Amino acid sequence: MRAVRHSAEGIEVVQVPDAAPNLESEIISVRSASICGSDLHLLQFGALPFTLGHEFAGITSTGRAVAIDPNVPCGTCDQCRGSASNRCRTATNRILGIGADGGMADSISVRKSALIDLPASLRLEDACLVEPLGVATHGMRQAQLVGGERIGVVGAGSIGLAAVAAARPLASEVGLAARHEHQQAAGERLGAKVAQGEYDVVIECAGTSSALERATEMCRPGGLVLFLSTLWDSVPIPGFTAMAKELGFRWSFTYGEHEHGTDLKDSAQLLSDNPEIAETLITHRFGIDEAREAFRVASDRKSGSIKVVIEP
Ligand SMILES: [Zn+2]
Ligand SMILES: [Zn+2]
């Protein structure tokens, strides 16, 4: 079968052995897999010994339409036993598409407990967004909202726009600080206004020191800055402003389970209820044989791309 890998020559579509079933797993025929900023970051490490793709959806041999939780928690550490498997102490090198074979392939073997059934009206070709939008639905839980807050979002790549989509039903107003015009327009389609004034919660979605500075400025005294970005490098804290306002800083990492379900199920429902989210976020689609071009478009800031989807 075909699989997307990163070799010394760059992104390649290679032939690998078919995914093998076992008792705990299901073979998924992949229908959509989207490219994430962290995929682009991974490429800097050169040739990778596994298939890329942690945002994907497909169909089981019995015809179930599913999205996939790419995390593979150990199930036995204190965090896993404490219902915080996203904080598993050993899982990061097992995440599908990050440390183990991922979903940019014709098919993949996935443990049964990682399958998320899709609401009937959510299209498989859009369901790769369940994972990245799940990052945002988890972020809303981490923000411990009481309802009706003014929520600011700094950064309008796919995570920032996912944050807008997840915040919109919960906030009295969502204000977006975007760097590019097409991103601001996308945010407005999802219900955000241009950021103006103070916000109770500001979600930092760019992962840069200037974004953190902006988030700190936008936050009201006593408010919360929530980090949804991936900070690959250390960033300086605008300490004086944060201190004088007694701001809270909190992090959010992937997604997990809660009293009434899971962040990924919430994400699937949000996508199903609001088709404009997928229509706005997915700007480009490519067949798997065009994976190299798909990655080029995703990494080209001038392409106007938000989410680039590969369809095996
Ligand atoms: Zn991702
Ligand atoms: Zn664990």
From TrEMBL:
Keywords: Metal-binding, Oxidoreductase, Zinc
Alcohol dehydrogenase-like C-terminal domain segment(s): 155-259
The keyword Zinc is annotated on this UniProt entry: yes
A Gene Ontology molecular function term of the record: metal ion binding
Annotated ranges, domain Alcohol dehydrogenase-like N-terminal: 27-119
Pfam families according to UniProt: ADH_N (PF08240), ADH_zinc_N (PF00107)
Requisite cofactors: Zn(2+)
Gene3D superfamilies hit by this protein: Medium-chain alcohol dehydrogenases, catalytic domain, NAD(P)-binding Rossmann-like Domain
Keyword check for NAD: no
InterPro entries according to UniProt: ADH-like_C, ADH-like_N, GroES-like_sf, NAD(P)-bd_dom_sf
Similarity section: Belongs to the zinc-containing alcohol dehydrogenase family.
Protein name according to UniProt: Unannotated protein
Origin species: freshwater metagenome
